Amino acid sequence: MIPNGMPVMIWCQGTGTAVEYQLYFEKQLSDWKKPDPPGQMSKVNFFIQTMSLQTAGQYRCLYRIGEHWSEPSDPLELVVTGMYDTPTLRIHPGPEVIPGENVTFYCDLETATKTFFLLKEGPSNHPQHRSGKTPAEFLMGPVTTAHRGTYICFGSYSNCVWSFPSEPVTLLVTGAAGVANPAPTEQPSSSDTLALATPVFWQEKTDHESRSRYIDQLDSWKPHMLTTKRGFHKGKQDAEGVSTLKNEVGKGVRPGRERA
Question: Which GO BP terms, alphabetically (predicted)?
Fold first, then answer.
């Protein structure tokens, strides 16, 4: 998820012998790069100057070794947030419950949409999706201490266009002690083609306070990692690997080249 107006860096990782990388947006060639010197860079970056409605969508990358092209990476969906309106989020019966109770999160938005997402703070939590009803109801329970934490919700106008985030609400699970069960995480194996998107911070020295706020917020709502097996189209190269999609926070790295 990238806020509207933010610059973004997309990284594509292949192998050290790759001589060309290509980036596709919605199945159309968007940009390409040739490592300099050839065959000595295992990853390259592609710069998107401004995240917007026009740049939100599905990206893939691939690389070439000699005359052979790899399969494309799994799709990386860039979601633009901060569009149109801000939803409200509330909890019933209240923000403080005891283990074993059922709770319902209600997410409401005045702008016409019936698709909503609820996110819990933490890098390993998948967004919960609801559609077809306003306000959206996210049922949870019987709750344990694993459910406690801070939540936000978004309204969605399409798969890749989301509203501003709601104000965060915190669910407290008090009373009888429980054991928190952390969500399972997927473990990637060796990489073949990697695509990831990194927000770029332009005002790290002149606007340190706003940069810090943005990093803290994005760290909290970082999406999860996806992995699938990938290889080559042609038989000469049979290097099986993993295409990994990940969304990470940048560290103030300035782009070297704008997207074509």
Answer: immune response-regulating signaling pathway
